[in-house]
Write a structure and sequence with these properties.
Layout: H1 2-14, H2 19-31, E1 33-35, H3 36-42, H4 47-59, E2 63-67, E3 71-75, H5 79-104, E4 113-116, H6 119-131, E5 136-141, H7 143-158, E6 162-167, E7 189-192, E8 199-203, E9 207-211, E10 221-225, H8 227-242, E11 247-250, E12 258-260, H9 263-275, E13 279-288, E14 294-306, E15 325-330, E16 335-339, E17 348-359
Parallel strand pairs: 5-6, 6-7, 16-17
Antiparallel strand pairs: 1-3, 2-3, 4-10, 5-8, 7-11, 8-9, 9-10, 12-17, 13-14, 13-17, 14-15, 15-16
Length: 362
């Protein structure tokens, strides 16, 4: 009881009461009415001060002073005090939530990694990353999360960002109506996975946001601006969230120009055509493996080299080009080698490639 009264005294002082006013006011609340002498005896307020304290409380509208056998005071309706305290409590709660968000959303620097507590924080950081994407976004989300991110995905699509979406059902196993999942002008390719997936967003081979979905028994998130770690999530996305599932939407057809951001997908598609004698012309944009400078190459494909668990390099499946992958391109003067993410021997690390034409000679 004493601890509760101490908390109440502190709360009233936070609401603008002096210490003496708070003590006297609580004593009157307990009794309904009391004499000035009784209030002084029941509190720590000196008898010489209790009359001034009661007059101050009366002028603020909290009590009424009257004379009977001696000076007495009775409490007035405390609704105003209660409402003020509740409003202050809400303000403190809002401030606490804001401070918690600030603690949960530290500023990221290059090559930084942060573990956060809430899925909302991860989604908000994903939104920021998508806004600054320069080439590619890959994401695995629930339908409602896709709808939440749709405005920034639409903006990215308008900037010619390549967007691959791996969609899973809602938490209850359902899919919303088609108009809710309007993919046009928002995604480049979409596959559907029938089972719940974690929240994953990968941007430009360098940034990643990851979090288990709610209901998985734990809630945390990983936010990283780190190429090596993002490379791990790249393979997780490719093998677990993409390759094994049917494409349900694509902006591309089977005729050139065909755009790729994944060299392995490109090689798996063009290897049969190349080995059947087709002349394949492409343009590619990427970065010099040694200097890091941006490079542009246009020309004819002269060779494809890849290694993986296959004995036939003529008609490889995507899973069979998991090792080294190289495309050799003759621009008329020099032959350039193009590799994938973090190449070890090729001249150029691929960012985006477009098959301009596929022709067969008679």
């Amino acid at each position: 009881m004493l601890m509760e009264q101490t908390v109440s005294l502190q709360a009233l002082q936070n609401a603008g009461f002096t210490q003496y006013e708070a003590e006297v006011y609580l004593e009157i609340l307990k009794r309904g009415s009391a004499s000035a002498i009784d209030l002084a005896n029941a509190s720590n307020v000196p008898k010489s001060r209790v009359y001034d304290v009661l007059r101050d409380l009366e002028s603020d509208g909290h009590v009424e002073i009257y004379k009977q056998d001696n000076l007495r005071a009775r409490v007035l309706d405390p609704d105003a005090v209660i409402a003020d305290l509740r409003q202050r409590a809400e303000s403190f709660a809002d401030t606490a939530d804001e401070l918690d968000d600030l603690w949960d959303e530290p500023e990221l620097t290059e090559n930084d990694l942060t573990v956060v507590k809430r899925l909302e924080t991860v989604i908000e950081r994903a939104r920021q990353y998508i806004r600054t994407a320069e080439n590619e976004v890959r994401l695995a989300v629930l339908p409602e999360q896709f709808h939440e991110l749709r405005p920034v995905l639409h903006e990215a699509h308008d900037r010619d960002i390549f967007i691959k979406l791996s969609l899973s059902p809602s938490m209850d196993g359902s899919l919303p109506p088609d108009d809710y999942l309007d993919f046009e002008n928002t995604t480049s390719e979409v596959c559907y996975r029938e089972f719940l997936t974690p929240f994953v967003v990968i941007v430009d081979h360098s940034r990643v946001c990851f979090a288990p979905q709610r209901g998985s028994g734990t809630e945390f998130g990983i936010i990283a601006d780190n190429r090596q770690l993002t490379y791990v999530f790249h393979w997780y996305f490719q093998t677990t969230l993409w390759d094994s599932f049917e494409t349900i939407y694509s902006v591309h057809d089977a005729s050139p120009p065909l755009t790729y951001v994944n060299i392995r997908q490109c090689v798996a598609d063009i290897a049969p055509l190349f080995h059947e004698g087709a002349t394949i012309q492409l343009t590619a944009r990427g970065y010099d493996r040694v200097t890091g400078e941006e490079r542009h190459v246009s020309g004819r494909v002269t060779d494809l080299i890849f290694s993986g668990p296959t004995t036939d390099n003529t008609y490889p499946a995507l899973c069979e080009v998991s090792g080294q992958v190289s495309i050799f391109v003759d621009d008329g003067e020099t032959t350039h080698s193009i590799g994938g993410w973090l190449p070890q021997v090729e001249d150029i690390e691929l960012e985006r490639l477009t098959i301009e034409s596929i022709e067969y000679t008679d």
